[in-house]
């Protein structure tokens, strides 16, 4: 479904006390004209990402004079970040993850870039599609249901490593890429910083959810080898699955149009995903255009499709941890993602590349 028209509140969100940002950047007692230590920490984090964004922009061969425009982007964004350090109220502040992401996207568009990660997304999607069959067969071969679910979850974490919004991972990725199966083996050992996996598995064994809405994250291994095998397992159990993807490009996040294309490539001539019918698989345009999401503003189409769901999954660091970790829903919810910023690890009291698996069950009584 296409996104159009006015944005609305996500219907399953419990709105009272909802804040899209998980980490408190400032408190009412803080001086409004002086940046807090947390604001400075995050301004610096975004500043450190400028070189990798500039490098991607320079090599965008769909844009004329890309190197000059990339330089213009880098200078303007750096200037705005410096302004925030002098006065957090400037540029619509005080700054938080959503505002810092939004300004970065606006500047890229203003100087003439639409999707600087398009080439790497296409390459990673193509690579992941060739591995999809093997990953699904490995999962299907696990007869013990609890172990199979845990393996699917590990696959989501392994896929979520492909994140070019993290300066360290972007650097690592550009050097030698990453092996999905090696990543599965190298996930930090449990218990994770937030670890409700055992509760989730026991709930999974008791009953199937009738409808799940999954807010998806990155292209490549994340969506193809992490989320889609998990979604396929839900479909196999009779759950209707709605995959909610971004309207517009942002970092290497999958967009609605890209996701439609990927699924059409993975389906066989009978419309099946490795033997599982996809009639109950729906793709929704969330209306979002950032790597983070404010659930008080989603597309009407997504709101309509999600209204009767009984499971909401927020996947990825941006949607599930940096925003919405503490969001409350009227149904069961799962926040799942890997911690890829030291600042987030510090806030949670965990390790860099630790895992968050936060499951909240809503009693049906």
Automatic annotation (TrEMBL):
Coiled coil feature spans: none
Its Gene Ontology molecular function terms?
Answer: ATP binding; hydrolase activity; metal ion binding; pantothenate kinase activity
Q: Which InterPro entries match?
A: ARMT-1-like_metal-bd_sf (IPR036075), ARMT1-like_metal-bd (IPR002791), At2g17340 (IPR016949), At2g17340_3_helix_bundle (IPR035073), Type_II_PanK (IPR004567)
Q: Which UniProt keywords apply?
A: Hydrolase, Manganese, Metal-binding, Nickel
**Which residue ranges does the record assign to the Damage-control phosphatase ARMT1-like metal-binding domain?**
47-356
Domain of life (superkingdom): Eukaryota
Cofactor needs: Mn(2+); Ni(2+)
Please give the biological process terms from Gene Ontology that the record holds: coenzyme A biosynthetic process
Q: Which GO terms describe its cellular component?
A: cytosol; nucleus
Instruction: Name it.
Output: Damage-control phosphatase ARMT1-like metal-binding domain-containing protein
């Amino acid at each position: 479904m296409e996104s159009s028209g006015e944005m609305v509140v996500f219907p399953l969100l419990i709105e009272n006390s909802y804040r899209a940002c998980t980490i408190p950047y400032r408190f009412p007692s803080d001086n409004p004209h002086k940046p807090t230590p947390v604001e400075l920490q995050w301004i610096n984090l975004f500043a450190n990402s400028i070189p990798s964004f500039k490098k991607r922009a320079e090599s965008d061969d769909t844009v004329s004079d890309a190197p000059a425009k990339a330089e213009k982007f880098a200078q303007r964004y750096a200037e705005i970040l410096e302004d925030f350090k002098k006065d957090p109220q400037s540029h619509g502040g005080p700054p938080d993850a959503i505002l810092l992401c939004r300004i970065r996207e606006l500047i890229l568009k203003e100087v003439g870039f639409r999707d600087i990660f398009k080439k790497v997304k296409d390459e990673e999607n193509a690579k992941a599609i060739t591995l999809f069959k093997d990953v699904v067969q490995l999962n299907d071969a696990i007869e013990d249901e609890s172990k199979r679910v845990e393996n699917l979850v590990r696959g989501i974490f392994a896929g979520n490593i492909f994140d070019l919004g993290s300066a360290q991972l972007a650097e690592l990725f550009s050097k030698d890429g990453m092996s999905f199966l090696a990543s599965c083996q190298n996930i930090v050992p449990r218990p994770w910083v937030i670890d409700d996996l055992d509760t989730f598995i026991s709930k999974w064994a008791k009953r199937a959810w009738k409808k799940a809405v999954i807010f998806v994250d990155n292209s490549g291994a994340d969506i193809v080898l992490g989320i889609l095998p998990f979604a396929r397992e839900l479909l196999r159990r009779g759950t209707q699955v709605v995959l909610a993807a971004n309207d517009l490009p942002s970092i290497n996040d999958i967009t609605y149009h890209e996701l439609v294309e990927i699924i059409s490539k993975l389906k066989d001539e009978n419309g099946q995903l490795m033997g599982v019918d996809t009639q109950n698989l729906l793709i929704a345009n969330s209306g979002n255009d950032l790597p983070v999401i404010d659930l008080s503003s989603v597309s009407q189409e997504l709101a309509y499709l999600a209204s009767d769901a009984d499971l909401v999954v927020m996947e990825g660091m941006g949607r599930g941890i940096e925003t919405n970790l503490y969001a409350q829903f009227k149904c069961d919810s799962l926040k799942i993602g890997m911690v890829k910023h030291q600042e987030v690890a510090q806030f949670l009291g965990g390790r860099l590349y630790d895992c968050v698996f936060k499951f909240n069950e809503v009693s049906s009584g």
